[in-house]
Amino acid sequence: MRDEFAGDRLLRNDNGKFVDVSAQAGIKGNPIGFGLGVAIADVNQDGWPDIYVSNDYIEQDYFYLNNKNGTFTDKLEQAIGHVSYFSMGNEITDINNDGLPDILTLDMLPADNYRQKLLYGPENYETYQNMLQNGFYHQLMRNMLQLNNGDGTFSEVGQLAGISNTDWSWAPLVADFDNDGWKDLFITNGYLRDYTNMDFMKFYADQKMKEAQGSPTALMDIMKQMPATATQNYIFRNNGRLGFENKVKEWGFDQTFLSNGAVYADLDNDGDLEIITNNVNQEVAIYRNEARPATAHYLQVQCGAGYLAKALGTKVWVYSKGTQQYQEFYPSRGFQSSMYQPLHFGLGTATAADSVRVVWPDGKQQTLTQVKADQKIILEPSGAIKNGLPVTRVKTLLTAVSKDTLPYEHQEDEYNDFKRQLLMPNMLSYQGPRLAQADVDKDGLTDIYAAGAKGQAGTLLLQQKNGSWKASNPPAFVNDFMFEDTGAVFFDADQDGDPDLYVVSGGYAYLEKDMLLQDRLYLNDGTGNFSRAHGNIPYESSSDACVTTLDIDKDGDLDLFVGGG
Questions:
Q1: Phi (first) and psi of residue 200, to 5 degrees
Q2: Alpha-carbon distance 408 to 328, whole Å?
Q3: pLDDT digits over 174-219, tens only?
Q4: Could you give the angle at the alpha carbon of 104 between the alpha carbons of 101 and 110, nearest 5°?
Q5: Which residues contact 155 (CB under 8 A, 6 or more apart)?
Q6: Is the CB of residue 265 less than 8 Å from the CB of residue 274?
Q7: Single pTM value for the model
Q8: Which of 181, 216, 328, 543 has its CA 20 to 30 A from that of 9?
Q9: Which residues have CB under 8 Å from 41's CB, separation 6+?
């Protein structure tokens, strides 16, 4: 259902007249969809442009895939595991040179511990769970880098890449600023007043705002007392290993501004990209790029010399020294900013591109070979021929050998560990299911024990000769369904030639000395039937986290190391 006055809109250009086709196109008109960023790109490489909308506040982002018939379908929850909470500007581009468009969204998590504690932070656990239960999606307060897996799904690697915390961020600009062949990242950030300053709100503003009710002038005076912090913008160098290095000082960005919009352009036509930022209550800042020519060759590709709209959606691949770079021309980038042509490619030490491949919006292609570096080339669609789209094939690490899934579904309880241990970095009651493997019934096939959560018995998954799996729940496992299994290992405890099972108990749902924190040993009768052994292991009712076997005293039998939780 669309709101009449709020929500996103899609306006179709009908010969110079714009027609609102939002409803029939499947564009959401939710009044709480506070969209701050929109990016367009052919994300799934099917030849049709898709749309990503980043939403501030509680509404999740939208990821619209083009249905090729004038309509779109939001596939966010099927494609992406979690997104930014206060999503700001965004960008779609190939970060890791695999030929697939990745998605970057910004948020407002500070980089240092002091400001993380001073300003409004991520929601607490109860609020987060309540949000999920009320139909909202997984949203976390930090920048997100969604790496395209090539199969319609994305893996979020922002923390791994080192770009997750950049304060109140607005515009991400992804471009090769040092011309080494890898796209770098520039981020603007800043806000005029720290209106999420928790000290100010708690110890000053709350009382003053009560006193100022009905007086706009008094409210304005309170706002003027609100702290203001000018912050640095961020620039990161792509190291080519799915990581980014902070180059704020080395690259000359250690001044403090309150910046929002930003663009890049080769202003002095010397083959590297300058950066221009829009700053609040200050002049525009222009940063001249001084990349070293000897190791910073480049190639600029302009798609058409005339009408800009004809080039929208043009795709360009540049191949050099066994590497590929991919870009798609859409001028809207970052946060409410627009970049003009040409597309800029860094070549590093290469003095020529082995080949340049271009696919125009109508599907026509052209390929150039041995293109000399350090120049701008202008291509026209008249030189292209009709051909199929190039397909980026992703070589996966693993290959599916069976479509059959395991007949087991883990059911976590909803206990909040943080209520007992506020300083823990993560909860220990939500780490299941732990798995252990062995041939428990001596049929030559590996079987699996799936550890259960509190309130769920552990399950034995027996492999069948046809590749399927059969679930088994021996009475001994069912009787112990209230234990929280936090680790398991098979080993021959009684030295009778078959694997027995040791399961450690843990989590924070039970207090110390509770009998439900006692570890358990289950003995195998040789056919896969297990019974609990009593008196074979020490009585230690404390929370454990893991277990492994080793012959620590070198007497020929296996001992156990049990790690505490």
A1: -60, -45
A2: 43
A3: 999 999 999 999 999 988 888 787 777 776 656 666 666 666 777 7
A4: 160
A5: 81, 146, 147, 149
A6: yes
A7: 0.84
A8: 328
A9: 49, 50, 52, 92, 93, 101, 328, 330
